[in-house]
Here is the input.
Amino acid sequence: MRHESTRTSTFAHGALHSRRWLLGALALAGIAAAYHAAPSLAAEKAVVIPAATDDAAAASPGATATAVVAGGCFWGVQGVFQHVKGVTNAVSGYAGGDEKSARYDIVSSGSTGHAEAVRISYDPKQISYGRILQIYFSVAHNPTELNRQGPDHGTQYRSAIFPENAEQARVAKAYIDQLGKAKSFGEPIVTTIEMQKRFFPAEAYHQDYLTRNPDQPYIVYNDLPKIDELKRVFPAVYRAAPVLVGAGA
Here is the structure.
């Protein structure tokens, strides 16, 4: 399949994905001792956190809103939001850098300013921006890890929110302050809010990666548990059938 062959060709550009495969393979092989010795590499449980008390105003009837977030490898973040009711599309991509460097082989170097990000399109009549952020902080990633998520290291894996407008920025900042004051995570939240940064869709082989590759070791160990946690913590918004980018995927 095209996305698999392209993935193979990118290994020379980023040992980080080799690490994804290796860590996942070790877990599936039952080598749990490696993760007991280094628990930060293990898949994490969702943190149950309060909803945002200061949420974004509803958009006009019939409008579709968008939210752009980054929280580690975009495979898992995209996969989580594809299972959220009210989300109409979730696209993996890059945000934080310029258009010329928005390519996986370059972003993997960690020198472009880009983060692996996901653009979430949603119906604000069904789900709010605040609820999107609640799922993002609770299930999709760990907002206390600086420039890393689990086994993935580098600024391209940073925790970041890219607001579409001043209202989103206000709500995101207020929510981070709310969670910080409540000590919801026990450690400081390191999520950055980065304004006026464009989003660039990633290559086709990255889209719907979790759904297309459910047996890939990295997905099994790091990302499928996030889907289970979404269903457990947010049953009211969980949907079993994901909304996919690729037609007929």
In short: The beta strands are 65-71, 87-95, 115-122, 148-149, 152-153, 159-162, 192-193, 199-201.
